[in-house]
Amino acid sequence: MTDTSLHAAKPREDDAGFGDFFALLKPRVMSLVVFTALVGLVAAPGSLHPIEAFWAILFIAVGGGASGALNMWWDADIDRVMKRTRKRPIPAGRITAGEAYRFGMALAGISVVMLGLATNLVAAGLLAFTIFFYVVIYSIWLKRSTPQNIVIGGAAGAFPPMIGWAAVTGGVSVESVLMFALIFMWTPPHFWALALFMKSDYHEAKVPMLTVTHGRRATRTHILVYTALLAPLAVGIAFTGIGGPAYLAVALVLNALFLKGAWDIWRRDEARAEADGYAVEKKVFRLSLIYLFAHFCAIWLQTVLNAQGVWSW
Fold first, then answer.
1. Which of 13, 80, 142, 183 has a CA that sits 20 to 30 A from residue 151's CA?
2. Both ends of the chain: CA-CA distance in Å?
């Protein structure tokens, strides 16, 4: 690592402002954390007082933001190299690595303690493990050591619905594990689709993404295989306690589209992909974002319908 120690400093271009510290939280990633955690909370049997639910989601969001800040602290050297990250606060010189570290650690401690006080120790423990997994297991260990970084590391982004569920129930169930599995299996094809048209960034940063270590042809095959494994899991959720006819209709359409996209990616060669600027790969990446959001929207909708005894099994 270069220039990422606690005391590493770089001349600032401007004084750090609120927007710079907020950017450390990775707000776009945090929004997904908040949404999936909220769906886990809503879908769980039982309920929280609205004020308790608000605090639970807030502290889960803060914990997600803490993970983002600590990830940026550790990955500052990589972020300086990659085009899509070089304008982040640390590589841009607006915040020092030490400031990001202290900020992230403070938020991590606050989020875990306060979630435990607002809900229960199981939810707090899951949040603490999620932060640890994302920062230590994924960012510090897996990301720079294996092309399976996204496969294993994807677990970090899959925990939020489990945390939301545990905030209500005080435990883990088959349904919360299935929501975890949905995100876990979705993560590799989602990121590999991105890596196909961002390979040069990972290569220059010496990150062993699958496209770098095994090439784009192998990556295309992996996308197809993981999507084929994801589809029956996603559809199968329809026949569990958090599923139903509405969810099934959404899952069938989305998984048909995602499978077709993965098939289209697999069929393409590099010459054709380069000729059209990786248009298909970019389209499938955008679809993958809609895919996850829509599945969790469907779980939320089906929860409401099941509670009312309307359009349910």
1. 80
2. 54
